[in-house]
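Dear colleagues,

As part of the handover before I leave the project, I'm documenting each prediction I ran so the next person doesn't have to rerun anything. This entry is a single chain, and its sequence is reproduced below.
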Amino acid sequence: MNKKKGIVLGVCAVVVVLVGYLVYFGYNKYQESLIFREGEKIGDMDVLEGEVDTKLYTSGDYQVVEKTMKDYIVEYVDVTREIVNRLSDEKFTNLLTYENVEQDGKEFTETLNYLNEQKTELQEGFDRVIAMSSDVEVMKAIEDKNVGTKYENLYREVMLDSSLSDALKDEQTTLIETRDDMMNFIDQYIEVFEFLKEHQNDYVLENGQILFQNESLLNQYQSYLNALQES
């Protein structure tokens, strides 16, 4: 009788361990599936129009992975939109209007300050999002959380081995090209106003036009405008 009782208790213990293992295994798989689901949602999101779902659906260290991923993308989106907002600034496209030249000339203090500020802010913004597109920067975010290798690998899989990573890489290439073109454009813009400032006594504003006193200066000014249009 005691022997049978011992066998039953032994079987029960095995069943309890097995059930516990299955529950633990199921929990981990479910948490991982939530992480991948949230990663796919972000990967499908329009950076300029969409919003990151910042609600956390996981728990424990999985939640650290999810939050790190979402915080990272939120920052990336915020910086990208700040760049777009600066590029879309109406003032940025109206600096060479007759009204602005008349109002801010002939020193162009406000215009040059504005352009130099735009250049600095855009350079910093572009550099930040380009850096955030790199594998090293992506992984640094989770490495600072000290969650352990298992969770770092999960984060790596979602952020670097998925459609989300492909989107970041494509964006990085575009951003580098845009940054270089934009910095060149602003430099050309600054050169135009530096030229007008240097030759402020050699032109007049009349009937909505900038009229130079000699053809040589007019040709130089026109060459600056042509370079600006081509940049």
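The chain has a mean pLDDT of 87. The beta strands are 203-206, 209-212.

All the best with the project,
I.
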